[in-house]
Fold this sequence. Notes:
By secondary structure, the protein is α+β, with helices and mostly antiparallel strands. The longest helix is centred in the last third of the chain and has 16 residues, at 194-209. The strands form 2 sheets. Strands 2, 4, 5, 6, 7, 10, 11, 12 and 13 form a 9-stranded mixed beta sheet that branches. It has helices spanning 12-15, 89-97, 165-170, 180-187, 194-209, and strands at residues 4-7, 22-23, 31-34, 39-46, 53-61, 79-81, 99-104, 106-113, 116-124, 130-140, 152-162, 173-175, 177-178, 212-216. The chain is globular. 36% of the residues are buried. The two termini are 20 Å apart.
Amino acid sequence: MCGRFVVANVGSELVGALRVDVENPDLPPPSFNISPMSTAAIVLDSAKTDPPTRRLEPARWGLVPGWAKDPKIGAKAFNARSEELEEKPMFRQALVKRRAVVPATGYYEWKRAGDTKTPHFIHPADGSPMFFAGLYEWWKDPAKADDAADRWLLSFTILTRDAIGPLGSIHDRMPLFLDADFADAWLDTETDNVGDLLDAAVDAAPDVARTLEDHVVSSAVGNVRNDSPDLIEPVADEG
Length: 239
């Protein structure tokens, strides 16, 4: 977890509670089957302005650190275990300086029973947006000219923690959920004690998890080329 998620709305409809200052005009369209290495919208606070500017930006799912020689490394870093962030060079600096919120409508998880894996769609019971704790990085492509529009790659990862309650019966990991109020603290570029902030986020995530519900969906979601609202519709559990 988390390997697929859904963004059914874009812009202010998705992140109104986060009070975004600037929306990039090139945000990706709604998608019902976002997979690693594809583009999704993230929220970040840019410390280049005073006060920081809260931005909604398109980013590639799969973290590529600034020191990486090849952006393909992001394929292995679409999730990051919250308990390992402070130990791993891949995530350590981003945790301190580049935290993000990944807004979503819901996400998919596969429940295993023997040799069978059944996809479930997990989402807020009231239909409100959900927010995942994330990290982001900027990577500069050394092969491209300084003035190339695509020289800089913005990428992100979604943080995870041990799953609880009904979610734990589907998979042993779940995203590190944030509510809108805690998202402000997570994005704050002036936070001094990041370790305490991370601990608080991990401790608070179960409160959000308890507001979620799930249902079985079609196995068609397993094919990344499928992308339609039908993917999140309930189907009979054949397992």
